[in-house]
From TrEMBL:
Domain (MacB-like periplasmic core) ranges: 21-224
Domain (ABC3 transporter permease C-terminal): residue spans on this chain: 266-380
Protein name: ABC transporter permease
Transmembrane segments: 20-41, 261-286, 306-333, 353-374
Cellular localisation: Cell membrane
Alphabetized InterPro entries for the sequence: ABC-4/HrtB_transporter (IPR051125), ABC3_permease_C (IPR003838), MacB_PCD (IPR025857)
UniProt KW Hydrolase keyword: no
UniProt membrane topology term: Multi-pass membrane protein
Species in which this protein is naturally found: Desulfomonile tiedjei
Length: 388
């Protein structure tokens, strides 16, 4: 089959600069939108899935599986579990059992409460650093019990809607009519831990006026989840239920599936709008080239060869828009913080997301060229040459 020279498609790009710019903008917009949707879903999934360690198990009050904040178990349960459940990871005599309080509270700017913000707070003991190895102190130190000190996550400021300098070391926040000084900053990138404020467990118990804890996070060594599950069913007096950390956050991901569907649907509809806009642009462009296409057929070029040249022309345009959209996506989206009910997560533009955006842009280039080109090429050669 005799093909048209590739530079024929390249030269045609400059015939209408307005059409070229509009087509590139449409491709870039579609790619940017697909990247936004994919980065949103990817970031939310990472914040929930990456947090979970495969050998971590959460013990909470029976009947509170859907919300750790509602769970309340006696603080003494941690010692009972550590002593009675074999197979828990142990290092230098320290058992990997972390009693924790999970609470959503309102923190204030000052004693009078001139400004207030919602914050996610976690009460912890030193064992928390063992069961949550992704959390690490990057500035300052861990807060000491009884000193009204707190440690702030890297995305806590985003969660509260304040500048990061507002929660820097040396700053203070108010809750429970007390001033709490920020003495440390920690990071747990890619997890929901990163948006939390950590408070010594006993101090948070006093502040929230409770003697109980929300849950125990246990890291297993030789034991398996079935062993922990059997333990909770045998010890009815403790009133516990066990769920692996992986399954717990997977259930939260399932809860947010409608949000994911809405994001993808919105991206699809706007992408479809961009595709139709590209089709209209292509129809207008090729309608003025009917005689040219008819002349190419009369010179012996088959319709398939002309169609390939037109697709090449469209792909060059859409590839340019795809490149622009991908660069904008990496610059504007990657790492941007987004608030949701569980806290804050960061948009993730990784190679999978980029491949999806590039595929969307190139598919748009092919689909945008074929219908208008076929409409022009199906005319008999004589009619095409007579077209005005």
């Amino acid at each position: 089959m005799r093909l048209l020279p590739f530079d024929y498609a390249v030269r045609n790009l400059g015939r209408s600069r307005t059409r070229l710019v509009l087509t590139i903008m449409a491709s870039a917009l579609v790619v940017l939108l697909v990247l936004t949707a994919a980065a949103f879903v990817r970031g939310m999934a990472n914040s929930l899935v990456n947090k979970s360690a495969g050998n971590n198990v959460i013990l909470m009050a029976a009947g509170s599986e859907e919300s750790l904040e509602r769970s309340q178990i006696p603080g003494s349960t941690a010692g009972i579990v550590a002593a009675s459940l074999p197979g828990i990871k142990n290092r230098f005599g320290v058992t990997y059992v972390s009693p924790e309080i999970h609470a959503a509270i309102i923190v204030k700017d000052d004693k009078e409460g001139s400004r207030s913000w919602h914050a996610v707070v976690r009460g912890f003991l030193p064992e928390a650093s063992l069961v949550h190895p992704r959390a690490s102190v990057i500035q300052g130190r861990m807060p000491k019990p009884g000193k009204d000190e707190i440690m702030v996550g890297g995305l806590a400021a985003e969660m509260m809607g304040v500048p990061d300098s507002r929660v820097a070391i040396g700053q203070s926040l108010w809750f429970d009519n007390r001033r709490w000084n920020v003495v440390g900053r920690f990071t747990a990138r890619g997890t929901v831990l990163d948006c939390e404020i950590w408070v010594p467990l006993t101090d948070l118990q006093v502040a929230t006026k409770r003697e109980t804890v929300s849950c125990l996070v246990v890291t297993l060594d030789d034991a398996e989840f079935a062993d922990v599950d059997a333990f909770t069913k045998q010890r009815f007096d403790l009133g516990l239920t066990a769920i692996s950390e992986t399954d717990y956050y997977a259930s939260i991901m399932k809860f947010y599936q409608p949000v994911h569907a809405m994001v993808w649907t919105t991206a699809f509809l706007i992408g479809l709008t961009g595709l139709f806009g590209g089709l209209n642009t292509m129809y207008a462009a090729f309608a003025a080239r009917v005689r040219e296409l008819g002349m190419l057929q009369s010179l012996g070029f088959p319709r398939r060869a002309i169609m390939i040249s037109i697709i090449q022309e469209s792909l060059l345009t859409s590839a340019t828009g795809t490149l622009i959209g991908s660069m904008l996506g990496m610059l504007l989206l990657n790492g941007r913080a987004v608030k949701f009910s569980m806290g804050v997560f960061q948009l993730v533009v990784d190679y999978r997301v980029l491949l999806l955006g590039v595929a969307a842009g190139l598919i748009m280039g092919v689909l945008g060229a074929m219908p208008p080109a076929w409409r022009c090429l199906r005319l008999p050669i004589i009619e095409a040459l007579k077209a005005s």
